[in-house]
Structure formats: C-alpha cells, structure tokens
Amino acid sequence: MHLYGTQTVNDKGHLTIGGVDAIDLAHTYGTPLNVYDIALFRERAKAFKETFKNAGMRAQVAYASKAFSSIAIYEVAEQEGLSLDVVSGGELHTAVAAGFPRERIHFHGNNKSFTELQYAFDEKIGCIVIDNFSEIALVKEIAETRKEKMNVLIRVTPGVEAHTHDYITTGQEDSKFGFDLKNGQTDEAFLQLHDHPYIELLGMHCHIGSQIFETDAFRLAAEALMEKMITWRDNHAFICTVLNLGGGFGIRYTEEDTPLAPAVYVEEMATVVLALTRSYNYPVPEIWIEPGRSLVGDAGTTLYTTGSAKVVPGVRTYIAVDGGMADNIRPALYGAHYTAASANRMDEPHDDKVTIAGKCCESGDKIIEEAYLAAPTEGDVIAVFCTGAYGYSMASNYNRLPKPAIVFCENGEHQLVVRRETYEDVIRLDIPLQKVKQEETI
Ligand code: LLP
C-alpha cells in the first residue's frame, strides 16, 4: 500500500494525515470527508519554485485552482508565494474573498463574459489570458472605455497534445481553446493586440494536456512558442517578456503511474528556453507554469464510512460507501483509477478484493472497481487516496446528496475549511410554487 506525504499508521492501526488520526477526523466531522495534507501541498509548491530559482530563472508558479477552489487553499497558495489561475467569475470571487494579491491572479477561460471581464478590471488583476477574437474585442472595449491598462497573454494551441505517456503533434489543432499557432490566427491576434494603448501584451500561453509523465511534449511546446516569439521580434521588433507553459504534470494515482519530480519538468523547460534564447540572442522571458493536479492531487484523501455489502456469488462483492459519484465523478466520467485502504485497520492484511460502490442511483457509481481492503465490515472508515484534484471541484448534489466537509491537517492540527452541506443548504435556492389564493381559483 502506498502512503502519501505525511501519512503514517499510528499504534492504533489507524491512518494518520498531517499528524492527525483519520478515524478521529471521521468521528469529529463525519463522512464523506475530504482531508488535505497541507505540508504536502507546501512541499510541492516549494519544489516548483525552488527549481526555477536554482536555474536562475524568473518565474511565476500559478496554482490552477480549478483543481480545488476554496478560500483556505487560496490562503495557503498566497503563503507559499504562488500566483493563481482562475477560470471564472466564481473562482475570481473566491480569490477576492481570500484577499489574494490581485497582481498575481491570471484569468483564463474560453468564454469569459463581459461581466466577468469587467470584474477582472475592477479588481485590477495581474493578467488576462486571451483565448479568442471575441475576447480581444471585449477586452479592448472595456480598456478603452475605462482608459485602464490590462496585461494580457495570447493563448495558443501549439499543435502538441499530451496525454499521460503519449504525445501527438498535429498540424491544425482541433481545440476549443486558444488561437492556432500555425494557421495565421495567432499572428492575427498579435497584430490586434501588440500596439494598443491600453493593452500590455506580455507574451504567450499554452496548456498541452493533463496527467503528463514525460518532458518531451513540454519541450516541443516551448520550442514552438519561442519560434513564434522570435518571428515577432524579427518582423515587428516586439519582445515577449512572459512564456506560460501551462500545467498538466502527472501524479501517482495507482502504481501504474510514474510521475516525475516537479524539478524534472522545470529543468527541462529551463534548459530549452535558455538554449533557444542564447542561440537567437533573445532576452530570457519569465516562465510561468500552472500546476493544478500536481499541487493538490495527492495531498487530498477522501474518508468514507462503509454501509451495505452485496455479494454476487462468483462475481464480486460490492461494499457501498456514504458518498460516490456526487463527490468524485472522475471514475464514472473518465474511468479514473484510485487506490484505497481500511483507515481503521491499516495494520491488517489488505487482501479482500472488493468493488467500492457509491450510494447514487446509478450502476456506474463505483469509486474503485478492484480495491483491496482489510476484510470490510459495516462501519469501517475507508480512505480513498489522491482525491485532492478535481474531486470536490467537480462535485454535484446528484440525488440531492449534500457536499462533504473539507478539513486541512498540518503538524498534528486540523481545521475545518469548508463546512458540510446540510439538507437546508441543498434546498436553499429552491422557490416553492406561489400559493394561489383559494378564492381566485373558484
Ligand atoms: N492550465 C490550464 C489552462 C488548464 O486548462 C489546466 C487544466 C491546468 C492549467 C491545470 O492542469 P493540471 O496541472 O491540473 O493537470 N477534470 C479533469 C482535468 C481537467 C483539466 C483542465 N485544465 C480531471 O479530473 O482529470
């Protein structure tokens, strides 16, 4: 069994996270419960930042907060000197509520509304990552009306797409995001932005995929973007000061996943960029990256309590837990794999093969198809590891299940940072039918 970060087993045979007994957490806060190992988040953040520093490169490491957005995690990100990638007015509002430094907020999205863009200007955020021609028109309109400056990056699709261990290079990129680098759209966007009185074009952005385990795709993407930057210098005397290479660094969900240390990705990026800038005599740009999953993924563990069991003779045993696809849609949506353990009996052999099922009314609601647990009995606390990214952030109230609570653990302390939804929360936006007065119906 693989334990993550600060996780250990204490003398009661219980899982501990951040020095806190997971069973105590389950009793105190109830289940399902999302528990974050904050020391691990900090360690990952430091690893990305330090490597840029060691390579002597100016950089911003922006937490891609779509992976898990809450006021408290933004506060930790701020403590670690991270920047923040937000993709909606809602994430921006969360950052504002957390008091996150506005100049380190980067705003993404392929369909930012006029209202969202106004909000970004109101808050004087650090940068808007421009995705398409409609957005260029909106941003110009707002900047000109207000006579206010805004930093922007141009998001491009570099024709490099990476998924786990494979990457493909394509000529024309079929993606809803960004400007195509090769068909002239990126140059057109550049021409519309580079000498505008209120637009400060900083450079380019790309994001080539998620859960990537090799560096080649990042190298190819960096080369493609640098090549374009060099043509703009040669043809328009324009220098990009920022090169944003996105996120996508892989993590270990199961033993099949073989992630690289943050430093390996960063070193590769630094090597490519430094080599190209040297050979073309180009000023070294600041490198920005946007890790999401690799900052919060393995820092998060979900605790569930087991309920009913169903044996299908000769087929399998279902162990049902008190959550499911409402708090973690990834197995149902992507066929994502996780590992689990019996958090209250960590010291016992985990050799019972079971299927961990959720409690939603859907056959596909299984958290783990093949999990190995210590002979499960009703009332056990099951820990599902590595659920910190895109779990809570994609949670729903399917079947009107209240969303779980979230607890941060660090140095033996625990703190509730998102409270559990109540049934009242679940119906808080409902409006009953207007009562029609009886005499009017006669
Ligand atoms: N930057 C941009 C522009 C992105 O679109 C994303 C993720 C990231 C950074 C962060 O990528 P990460 O480091 O977390 O891989 N819901 C899916 C993942 C969707 C990723 C969307 N964009 C999942 O659960 O696997």
Protein model, in words:
It is globular and about 70 Å long. The chain has helices spanning 22-29, 38-54, 71-79, 89-97, 114-122, 133-146, 185-193, 216-236, 262-279, 293-296, 330-334, 423-426, 438-441, and strands spanning 8-9, 15-17, 20-21, 33-37, 59-64, 83-86, 105-107, 127-130, 150-157, 160-163, 166-169, 179-180, 199-205, 209-210, 242-244, 286-289, 300-312, 316-321, 340-342, 352-357, 366-373, 381-385, 405-410, 413-418. With 442 residues, the chain is of the alpha/beta class. Strands 4, 17, 18, 19, 20, 21, 22, 23 and 24 form a 9-stranded mixed beta sheet that branches. An 8-stranded parallel beta barrel has the order 5-6-7-8-9-13-15-16, surrounded by 6 helices. The chain is built from 13 helices and 24 strands. The protein has 2 domains: 8-37 and 297-427, Lyase, Ornithine Decarboxylase, Chain A, domain 1 (Beta Barrel); 108-291, Alpha-Beta Barrel (TIM Barrel). α5 packs across α6 (133-146) and α8 (216-236) packs parallel to α9. The model has no long low-confidence stretch (mean pLDDT 95). Bound molecules: ligand LLP.
List keywords for this structure.
single chain; 2 domains; 13 helices; nine-stranded mixed beta sheet; 442 residues; binds ligand LLP; Lyase, Ornithine Decarboxylase, Chain A, domain 1; TIM Barrel; 30% helix; alpha/beta; eight-stranded parallel β-barrel
